[in-house]
Design goal:
13 strands; single chain; mainly beta; about 0% helix; four-stranded antiparallel sheet; about 200 residues
């Protein structure tokens, strides 16, 4: 979405043509607003690391033409750098763990919902639940350590549940992910700490 106003008189700029990579993507309406699909060049891939785009130089511009005048609008984030947006989410998902803190040797009970937004029927499919070190999208598999793994079948109500055990983990933050093939559907943090349960007397 682009919203164009004339700074000399405050009026909306009507019928301005918006171009991206020398191709017309839309025109402004009477309110000075042009709405169009995000160009594919500005949408990141799921296997791309996001770190690069926080500091990359400006790479793309929108060009606006109206009344013989032209304006170049840089595609940038709030920090003044080029930044791709995340691809559309292809899943409805929810993932819940039974506790907020676990011992170095413990068991995680999990429950969740996973359903594809395109309506594909995935009932009965098995997904993989992995306990790993925390990582970002685009992280090399060589930098991911798996500490535990199990499988869970998706029910007729698109739910999944189960448990995963681990032992002798160092205190710190870990990641529990639901995977379908190499795709990570949803994940949650697992906090491992050394603690002693308080003694209660009734």
């Amino acid at each position: 979405l682009l919203w164009l106003k004339d700074l000399t008189n405050g009026s909306s700029i009507f019928n301005a043509e918006v171009l991206f990579e020398n191709k017309s993507v839309g025109r402004t309406n009477s309110d000075g607003i042009a709405m169009f699909d995000t160009p594919s060049q500005l949408i990141g891939n799921r296997d791309e690391s996001s770190y690069y785009y926080y500091s990359a130089p400006l790479s793309y511009f929108y060009a606006v033409t109206v009344g013989g005048r032209q304006l170049a609008i840089p595609v940038e984030n709030e920090y003044g750098y080029f930044s791709k947006i995340s691809p559309p989410d292809s899943w409805w998902d929810y993932f819940s763990l039974d506790k907020s803190v676990y011992l170095p040797t413990d068991k995680v009970h999990f429950w969740g919902i996973v359903k594809q937004r395109n309506g594909a029927d995935i009932k009965g499919e098995e997904v993989i639940i992995q306990l790993t070190n925390p990582f970002w999208e685009g992280t090399s598999k060589d930098n991911i350590t798996v500490y535990g793994e199990t499988k869970s079948a998706i029910s007729d109500f698109y739910t999944l549940s189960g448990e995963i055990s681990f032992s002798d983990l160092k205190p710190g933050l870990y990641q529990l992910s639901v995977k379908r093939g190499d795709e990570i559907i949803v994940s949650e943090n697992v906090n491992v700490e050394t603690y002693v349960k308080p003694a209660y007397k009734l």
